[in-house]
Amino acid sequence: MAFIRRSNPVSRRHLLRGAGVSVGLPWLGAMAGSNSAAGREVNGKTLDRPPMRSAFLFMPNGVNPANWNPVATPDSDQFDWTPMLRPLSGVGDELILLENFHHPDLAGGNGHWPKVPAFLSGGHVLRTSGRDMDTGCTSIDQWMAQRIGHKTPLPTLELGVDSAYTGVDNVGGGFTRIYGSHIAWRDRHTPVPNEIVPQLAFDRLFRGVRSTPVSGLNPHHRAVWESMHRDETSVLDAVREDARSFSKRLGREDRGKLDEYLESVRSVERRIESSRKPKARWVNEGDLGIQRPGPGIPDSHVEHVRLMMDIMVLAFWTDTTRIATFMMGNAQTGRNFSFIDGVKGSFHGLSHHRNEESTLRQYEAIGTWHIGQVAYLIDRMRNLSEGDGTLLDHCMVMFGSTLRDGNKHDTENLPLLFFGGGSAGIRRGRRLTAAQPTPLCNLFLSMAQNMGIDDQRFSTSTGPLDLA
Question: Which residue ranges form the domains of the chain, and what is each CATH number?
Fold first, then answer.
């Protein structure tokens, strides 16, 4: 292989730099170093193998159970593709279908609001109007970040597509709607805002923007627009000279990987530019009484979701962070999914299907669409070479909802999927059915241990889940 000379390995932390811009690099053969300590992580400088990452994807409102879980097959961990899982058939060798997992402290209570923050915390969520929010536990992503987040420029990356809610749902039991807007909680009382504008999420990776996201709270705020238009220069244009000089130091194979990576960055930039709403233009002060759309949100929901997924991939590929969350919708999201054939209405509205055939069919179609987007993400990750495998080999991706059936609001046997982790010896391409209802936090604990965290308990866990 035509890598850089082993006597002068490239640091995993090497950045391409330009005016106000820094671009991390994907894993290159030149980063392997030698078999000596020079190639290992010493004072955070370099690694001799790609690190493990964790991603947590959340979908609100549950699934149609009748078309989710396959019929049980005695003495076999294989399964047939049900209608809702069929979009994953092309990546089935990377999938573990998790069955009979739950959060034991989630039973009862309101249908939606307390279940969302419990997704990654597993804790008992306090009923409150907002003054004394308590999720019972820090979420697993933030818990991981407290232990290993110092190893990357961004300890975690929180992404979403919906603005955060405010107010109290007095009809739904007196819970603050803030609960329904966040799966990441820095501690049991403090939610972590999601970034919902693709360009601002992209800037956090490459332009050194480390401030707390504001778009997740209010994408119409002027500060969001100003953030988007601080600098129109492509990050690749800014680092072009440094990239050209660095490329000369690499062998042929690594140059090909670098070109592929930079083209991926360019592709995301182009899509952000083409989808941005409104375009860059002069803005006069004052109010004409005409409401204009909020800046930065793509017209197409499909494009919005996939841009966020691609930004997550870039964040992992550059080792900008090793921990990420993505909310594909808030609790009771009112988003209209009429862009799907045969669907007329919102996800939450249709989730109360009352077992009416037409409504149930539309509800299932929306859930199946979400599964198709997950398939897109997994396919992207498994087609990116990294070290001696793929990016997906060095990532663990969990997808799920904290409701089983949106009509019943039930929380047992949650709809859950797990992908990747091949480099950690995780055996995929199967169903994993717990013999009895098992805390989902057992999975979280196993993921943390695969990330190099030595703790033996998280929240309601009773022990690590055997994924081998």
Answer: 53-209+282-451 (3.40.720)
